[in-house]
Amino acid sequence: MELIRFAQRNYGLLLRALSEHTYIVLVALVLSVLLAGLLTIIAMFFKRVGNVLTYIFSIVYSVPSIALFALMIPVPGMGLGRNTAITVLVLYNQFILLRNFIAGLNGVDHAIIEAATGMGMTRTQIIFKVRVPLSLKPLFVGIRLALVSTIAIAIIAAFIGAGGIGLLITIGLETGNNNRVLWGVILSAGLGIIANGLLVFAEKKIK
Amino acid sequence: MTTNTTVAIEYQHVSKRFKGANYDAVSDVNISINEGEFITILGSSGSGKTTLLKMTNRLYDPDTGKILLFGENINDVDAVLVRRRIGYAIQQVGLLPHMTIAGNIAIVPKLLKWDKNRIETRVHELITLVGLDPDEFLTRYPAQLSGGQQQRVGLARALAVDPKIMLLDEPFGAIDAINRLNLQDELKAIHKSFEDGLRKTFLFVTHDINEALKLGTRVIVMNEGQVCQFDTPENIVKNPADGFVESLIRSCREQEKLWEGLA
């Protein structure tokens, strides 16, 4: 009951947190997919580069997010704020996306690739006309995993002043305002569930 | 039969060894194939027959030796261009599952930027040639076809741009006996149908001696990377060149005895 009353009183605050959060997540996701897509294409041509990139990003991925946010603050051009947060989120996503993208593209039936090569398709044509259309599902799974993890990790970004739902939680914790904290949890969990659901639905539409 | 003897494919001392292997997959192969021939390459697995085939469209490159197509060293030509000039069909067919049958057959014509009408006419021609009804099949997807039908489409796709050379890697290997016999007859008829016009050279890999002897105008028998014999089916049966060829024929004869015993 109290929770609802809090929401009625702080309607604008919650909505702003939600929209800030959604903005960070969407921008980070779009940039992540673009970067990972580019790196994946490079990896398809140079296998070793792909292995090295995946290894480097696996190390990045293993750094606790709060530490990575802190590490970025002294980097020139970064500092506190939303852009730094987005950069970190993009870096985090690379491991999830790259691994899923590369595995997906390489998972296409070998006989199909051999036939396509034998017919005289170039490597680029094989990537875009054969591998990508035949691995939409794993590509999509990668994007969905990245989205859900971005929504969660973006909460931590409040510590470096990125705003969003994380701010509700940190301020709530500092001031002992349980309603604030609870709303933060509800909104982030809700956002995650809805986003995941939408993508699962879209995934089913493919094939 | 032809009197013209243009050489279509020439292997000059071709050898190939795969990384990490301590024997040659193909060892000093030295043969030439005339335009319009239907050559079958017979051998057991590991004999090098598929490796030899795949070097012909540069899926593999030989370590030593040269391969000439109509006098041109294929090593001097971009691999992609070599492949577009050669039809290629494999046992697993490898149709693209996200494209319709029409789309699959049209792949190479599209790569060569043919105009739409020409592609459409050609696709109809080809699907009819391999014995499938255009109205029924062209809009279907590969998964909706039986194995035999898929292989027919595979052949149509390989023939799409009227290549002078066709490479066929055990295309009927996964097809049941009855359909297989039909397909063999039809393939032979298709090869014959080009005799008056643009003659085609077929190179057909198989491990089935009956198939090799039935289809081939000449047969290459391979064992352990080497060519044991390259001759007409009659001569191979009459005068086996070595112990291996002899044992092949003997094994086949023994099977015949089994049939006689059962009849």
Question: How would you describe the overall organization of this protein?
Answer:
- The complex is a heterodimer of chains A (207) and B (263).
- Chain A is built from 10 helices and no strands.
- By secondary structure, chain A is an all-alpha fold.
- Chain A starts with a helix and ends with a helix.
- Chain B has 11 helices and 10 strands.
- In chain B, the strands form 2 sheets. Chain B has a 6-stranded mixed sheet with strand order 6-7-8-3-9-10, sandwiched between helices. A 4-stranded antiparallel sheet of chain B has the order 2-1-4-5, covered by helices on one side.
- Chain B is α/β, with parallel strands linked by helices and 263 residues long.
- The radius of gyration of chain B is 19 Å and the shape is globular.
- The two termini of chain B are 37 Å apart.
- The A-B interface holds A 109, 111-122, 125, 130, 133-134 and B 57, 59, 80-85, 88, 90, 92-98, 107-108, 111, 154, 157, 167.
Entry summary:
Chain A is built from ten helices and no strands. Chain A is an all-alpha fold and 207 residues long.
Radius of gyration of chain A: 20 Å
Helix content of chain B: 25-40%
Determine Rg of chain B (CA atoms, Å).
19 Å
The neighbouring-strand order within the major sheet of chain B is 6-7-8-3-9-10
Overall outline of chain A: elongated
Number of helices of chain B: 11
The H-and-E topology of chain B, N to C, reads as: EEEHEEHEHHHHHEHEHEEHH
User: Could you name the ranges of chain B where pLDDT drops below 50 across 5 or more consecutive residues?
Assistant: none
Output mean pLDDT of chain A.
91
The major β-sheet of chain B equals:
6 strands, mixed
Helix/strand/pairing class of chain A, anyone?
mainly alpha
The count of helical stretches of chain A stands at 10
Flag low-confidence runs of chain A. Answer: none
Strand and helix order of chain A: HHHHHHHHHH
